[in-house]
C-alpha cells in the first residue's frame, strides 16, 4: 500500500532509561553521622585494585616497598570511611 497505509503500526516498547552511574559505585558513599555504616568490601575499589595489581605484578625484590605509595592511598581511603587497617 505504501507509506500511508491504514494498518496500525506495532507498538514500540517504551525506552528504558537507566540512571548514569560512575565506574566506582561506592566512591562517594560516606557513612552518615549516626547512619548505616558501609561495608569495607564496597568502598575504595579503585585504590584496592591498583594496590593488588602492583603487589601481584611487581618485579621488585621487595614488592611491599615498591607499592608502598599505593598501599598508603588505600589505607587513607579506608580511614576516610572509618576503617583501620
UniProtKB/TrEMBL annotation:
PROSITE patterns the UniProt entry points to: CHCH (PS51808)
Alphabetically ordered keywords of this record: Chaperone, Copper, Disulfide bond, Metal-binding, Mitochondrion
Signal peptide: none
Residue segments, region Disordered: 1-37
Localisation per UniProt entry: Mitochondrion intermembrane space
InterPro entries in the record: Cys_alpha_HP_mot_SF, Cyt_c_oxidase_Cu-chaperone
Keyword Mitochondrion (UniProt): yes
Gene: COX17
Protein name per the record: Cytochrome c oxidase copper chaperone
Family matches, as Pfam families: COX17
Domain of life: Eukaryota
Biased composition (Low complexity): 1-22
Family: Belongs to the COX17 family.
Amino acid at each position: 500500500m505504501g507509506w500511508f497505509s491504514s494498518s496500525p503500526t506495532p507498538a514500540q516498547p517504551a525506552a528504558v532509561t537507566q540512571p548514569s552511574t560512575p565506574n566506582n559505585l561506592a566512591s562517594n558513599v560516606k557513612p552518615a553521622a549516626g547512619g548505616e555504616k558501609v561495608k569495607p568490601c564496597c568502598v575504595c575499589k579503585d585504590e584496592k585494585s591498583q594496590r593488588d595489581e602492583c603487589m601481584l605484578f611487581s618485579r621488585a625484590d621487595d614488592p611491599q616497598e615498591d607499592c608502598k605509595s599505593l598501599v598508603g592511598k588505600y589505607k587513607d581511603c579506608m580511614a576516610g570511611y572509618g576503617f583501620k587497617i
